[in-house]
Amino acid sequence: MGIKGLQGFVARVCPDACKTVDLREVAEKHRIDHPDFPPVIVVDAMSCVRYWYTPESWVCGGQWREYLAILEDFVKAFMAAGIKLVFYFDGVVEEKKRDEWIKRRLQNNKEIARIFQFIKTHKKQPGREMFIVPSALPTFTRFALKSLGQKTVCTLQEADFEVAAYGLQHNCIGILGQDSDYLIYNTCPYFSIEKLSLDRLVTVMYSREDLCRALGLSLTHLPLFACLLGNDVVPESLLEGFWRKCLVTSPHKNNSYNRRTNILLAVANYISKVPCSYSSLKHLEEMLPLGSDKTLLHRGVESYLLPGQQSPWIPPNLTSCQTLSLQQQTAVCQDKEIFQLAKEQHIQSENYTIFNILSKGEIECSNSLEDECDTEIPGQALIYRPARQHIYSVLLESGKGGAYPLVKEWFVYFGNPLQQPELIQPVQPSMPGGTPNLKTLWFAKGPDVEKQRYSTFLACFHLQDRMEELQALEAPVAAFCCLLAYLMMQVSSLSLEDLNAFVALILCLKGKSAAQLAGLQLAQVDSRGVHLGAVFVRGLTTLLMANSACGFPFRMDDLMPWEVFDGKLFQEKYQQSHRRCSLEELLEGNESLYTPFQNLKSFICEACTAKKRTIQSRPRGNGFITGTQQREFNPRFQQTHRSSFVPPYHNQMRGFLWRNPQPQGKKY
To answer: Partner of 214 for a Cys bridge, out of 14, 81, 337, 529, CB 3.0 to 4.6 A?
Structure first.
């Protein structure tokens, strides 16, 4: 997560350490020096996503087709220069980083509250200065890059360590990211994603050597320098007294600099006078108020040592180069075959979160764009918890005496202080004959097993009785309906108008290009529509988890948001539906969508009725939308709104949504 203030410090105080470089030239030099090895850049994807997400709209749930096109252009620019990219994503939150993770999540909650306040006041999206990435953006970025044929790695420990190690071990031409820790690791050059001009492939390289020259340090000093400034291992709160001492003796104090800049210069000055030895490190540990943990500095310095590296601050016999903490012996899952496959799929970005559950029995979910003032819609963490409990049950087959291990959840939602994980009990889904075991779901072959995978997946969402109807649909539409039916069952405040908006979305999205969706203009933005968009997108990640657990009854590509969701289009359909527009307007004048609309809506309503849930009409009226007349509509179209919906169709999942369209007698 970097060293506070270091990146800005380098730009302001050490301009010589910021060199403009042409990546094409860097790659060409590499080819001359290493003709047998193509130039590779390792990308810290987690620090890049906010720079990749450039669509104008970001509050409505995500402009996923636009975003996919942007990622494709990014990859093509490097391919054209003959540069191979390897993308790394954080696969875990390490225990030592948990406190910092919690602090950031609670801060994000405040930022999200301000965003909703702005939307309610101004009826529009805030400016980019309040930007927060759409919910689940890193997750779907990983699958997007994989679908574009890129090598993507999901880490087993903190990503920055694995990125730095990969860059060093594979002689990469550089690391692309935005994290000041890459100034500290002794690895390949560090390139800025923030300063990257994609059309010219020009960016800024931050030079460790020039930073050291400016500070009067050597490369071996940098890990200790980082620890004494405060990082993920050594908290800043322990260092205040030390900084004061350094400031008193520093010859570099400059009143035109801010306090942080003066601290950086003072700490560098102090370290430059300390002999590089283990006894110096021990002396520093004695001097600092480290409490009972006197090895903090030792561990902090060691955290920057890549495989094969040593440090004069730590004797070789005390260097325990970082080993992966996720070992089979301590794992929740004791089946070696299952554990190994889950681990391989995790690293290769093929599954989603299930390795974390099988290895540590722990899972986390970051902030979503949810309105804490809307008490009618529970937090997405709570909406999808029953489904997750079924997924945990599929993964963690009951042990001795039929008891499941509890799963630790760190999920952000309003009212959860995140002081400790919530302990969640797995719950077996309702299936005739019980849930198939994991070995069957993951390793067995044949049509019967395929059916078991699909029915187990549906059982996680209480839809096991709807298998035949869902299998008749195209896979992305079936997944969409599965999620929408679950959502309508779980959230009693969702109305017919909400249902109409979602069904119109999936029908109207088909065939729309990224450019067409980018061109869609919204007169205003509705805060509840924003909230529902985020809830729906988080639901797609729950589908990914269920799919991974059940042995992949769906292709992961069929569960992606660019297949089934667009933020602006949903916002438009939501507003149209709640102001009770005609079906003609809702479906953009496309009469051929009328029957599929009624059929999908019938399917959802029937699934809800079977669970004693009747969906009521609750139009929210014009609300803030003014001056909109209901359009004259073709009498062949009917009104979409009634006080409650009586399904007129039964098992007529026909039309272009069929997997294999059937010849039909009537045209619609």
So the answer is: 14
